[in-house]
Design a protein that fits this description.
Oligomer: homodimer
Largest sheet of chain A: none
CATH class of the largest domain in chain A: Mainly Alpha
Number of helices of chain A: 10
CATH topology of the largest domain in chain A: Tetracycline Repressor, domain 2
Helix content of chain A: 55-70%
Largest interface: A-B, 40 and 40 residues
Order of helices and strands of chain A: HHHHHHHHHH
Distance between the termini of chain A: 49 Å
Structural class of chain A: mainly alpha
Radius of gyration of chain A: 19 Å
DNA sequence: GGGCAATCTTGTCAGTGTCAAGTTGTGGAA
DNA sequence: TTCCACAACTTGACACTGACAAGATTGCCC
């Protein structure tokens, strides 16, 4: 409480956009996107009920901004992967560390599909994933490279999704989910 | 329009529960669970705004009923699978034929987790999936049978989810999604 | 210093979920 | 057949929400 929160709330928040985003991520991680309320976010940030709309236009705009940010973060971490298995592990780790982003990114009915930031960020992530797939030597990925990518993505996405939904609690147990996924990825591509 | 829809709407709808469920499935398939409104469903069924609540208690109750129905349907089709690959294909087909059920089934924050019907239906589906996994000969499923099940489920679930989100439109193209998945499943378990 | 645009507030409207209380119809017991 | 208890549905109300319009405040740039 050194620099932030002056005694009397000033007219200008300072970084309301970020504050609303962060609060929204908290709420979504706890209650899902359906638990999100712009007015609640406004209260949390200590501003009037209509203030958030000025930064995000509307609820869809806020969720679209979250999805775009998520795709950017995902693209960044996938781009650093050393091979496809590592990319999968990073995908799973991303879902665990950014569950709110992850949920919103794959809920198209909540997003403004035409949005430019969203489109470019998603393209970036797709590109990073494609790079990880093409790094696999041809003999290790079967006849169709396109399908190898779909298989890897499906496995990672399914594992991450089921994990976040607590559908794998029993099977994963005390182990680190990323390590479990490493085994699954080994099943899909013989060499690794 | 032979037996249904009498000219003057009678006080008792006849099968309001089913009518609301069906309408809800339509709405969810089109706009997702967030587009669902009890009052809208009531209007579609031609009843007063509070009538649906009498059958489902509240919004959560309606969605829970849908999820339970979904798990029942899924369990039934998985139970008929001849092997694990077929079970995966049926999983994908279920997601395509019942997209609304599928979405709701795996949105835990929208459901009443304690619900008895939900719990039993989900257990039934889990049991059916376990049966399909245990039908695979030990040499074909790797060291850990539990993980083989997780791998199969993750692959099918991820593929189905990405498919419904239109994330695989380019990769799948004109092919039947079930056939594409058959190839993916072949990558995961060498023999098939 | 003056104006201007971004930021935030206030007020309002239609729509929603949920609850409480009343109304209507149905099926089963007497 | 009559009647009554219960299920199905209606009506009315309240608090909450997203969205919009119009006004107030403030920092910034010329």
């Amino acid at each position: 409480m050194s620099t932030t929160k002056p005694t009397k709330s000033p007219y200008h928040h300072g970084d309301l956009r970020r504050a609303v985003l962060t609060a929204a991520l908290d709420v979504i991680a706890a209650d899902g996107p359906s638990g999100l309320s712009l007015r609640d976010l406004a209260r949390r940030a200590g501003v009037s009920h209509a203030a958030p709309a000025h930064h995000f236009k509307d609820r869809t705009g806020l969720l679209t901004a979250i999805a775009a940010e998520g795709f950017g973060l995902l693209a960044a971490t996938i781009a650093e992967a050393v091979d496809l298995k590592d990319a999968g592990v990073r995908y799973v780790r991303f879902a665990r560390e950014h569950p709110a982003h992850f949920q919103v990114m794959f809920a198209p009915e909540l997003l403004r599909e035409g949005d430019l930031e969203l489109t470019t960020a998603r393209a970036l992530a797709s590109e990073a994933l494609g790079g990880a797939v093409s790094a696999v030597p041809p003999e290790g990925r079967g006849p169709d490279a396109r399908l190898a990518g779909v298989a890897a993505w499906s496995l990672a996405h399914g594992f991450a999704t089921l994990l976040l939904g607590h559908n794998l609690d029993g099977a994963v147990g005390e182990r680190e989910p990323e390590e479990v996924f490493r085994v699954l990825a080994g099943m899909l591509f013989r060499s690794g």
